[in-house]
């Protein structure tokens, strides 16, 4: 008996990678972390913790429960959309070109990690991918229990997130910090992106 359906696992990995490569709130937060210097590790770690939280919820069965209760998923999506708008407004209003003393004035690593968890943990796109879609790529007839299959698929997705988000943050740090004006523009655009994503997702859910 096969342990997992490799074709389904590969299909989920491709879907996951396309999801991660699409710029969105996680990208905007990673760029913001890169512009603030030595907080990339905690910030990306926070983002990954959010993805792992969703994976854990799906593995223990909460994801299936949420998927069967549209009103719960709607409420979570609206909450996530509101958080994106709130953080986007903060990013937009506090946008500034990087300075030599950024490391001293930036939030603590713990705060960056917590904000990263909030960004990905309440990101409606992550909810859709991991809570609503991930279980569909498991193999009920496989040799491994479904929670184990879900955990492995979630870990594969998290690895993709780690590579992409770290690359985005490092690019922002090494390229944009040398161009203060461009960094200011990108920072403001990141805020606009988060506000736009949150507004669209929230309105879509409320009008259903």
Structural notes for this entry:
With 208 residues, the chain is mainly alpha-helical. It contains ten helices and no strands. α3 (40-59) runs antiparallel to α9 (146-176). The chain starts with 5 loop residues before the first helix and ends with a helix.
Approximately how much helix is present in the residues? over 70%
Oligomer designation? single chain
Run of helices and strands: HHHHHHHHHH
End-to-end separation: 44 Å
Low-confidence stretches: 96-105
Query: Average pLDDT across residues?
Result: 75
Shape: globular
Proportion in β-strands: under 5%
Biggest pleated-sheet summary: none
What is the number of E strands?
0
Continuous helix count: 10
Taking all Cα atoms into account, the compactness measure Rg is: 18 Å
Structural class comes to: mainly alpha
Write a short abstract of this structure.
Helices cover 78% and strands 0% of the residues.
What is the element layout, followed by pairings?
Layout: H1 6-21, H2 25-35, H3 40-59, H4 62-68, H5 70-93, H6 102-105, H7 109-121, H8 124-133, H9 146-176, H10 180-206
Notable characteristics:
208 residues, 10 helices
């Amino acid at each position: 008996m096969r342990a997992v359906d490799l074709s389904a696992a590969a299909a989920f990995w491709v879907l996951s990678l396309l999801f991660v490569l699409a710029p969105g709130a996680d990208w905007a937060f990673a760029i913001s972390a890169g512009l603030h210097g030595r907080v990339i590790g905690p910030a990306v770690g926070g983002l990954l913790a959010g993805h792992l939280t969703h994976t854990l919820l799906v593995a223990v069965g909460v994801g299936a429960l949420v998927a069967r209760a549209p009103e719960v998923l709607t409420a979570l999506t609206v909450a996530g959309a509101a958080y994106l708008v709130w953080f986007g407004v903060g990013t937009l209003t506090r946008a500034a070109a990087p300075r030599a003393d950024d490391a001293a004035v930036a939030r603590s690593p713990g705060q960056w990690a917590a904000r990263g968890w909030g960004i990905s943990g309440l990101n409606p796109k992550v909810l859709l991918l991991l809570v609503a879609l991930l279980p569909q790529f498991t193999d009920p007839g496989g040799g491994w229990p479904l929670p184990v299959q879900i955990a492995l698929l979630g870990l594969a997705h998290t690895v993709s997130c780690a590579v992409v988000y770290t690359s985005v943050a490092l690019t922002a740090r090494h390229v944009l910090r040398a161009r203060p004006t461009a960094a200011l523009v990108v920072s403001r655009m990141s805020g606009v992106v988060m506000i736009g994503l949150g507004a669209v997702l929230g309105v879509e859910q409320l009008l259903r």
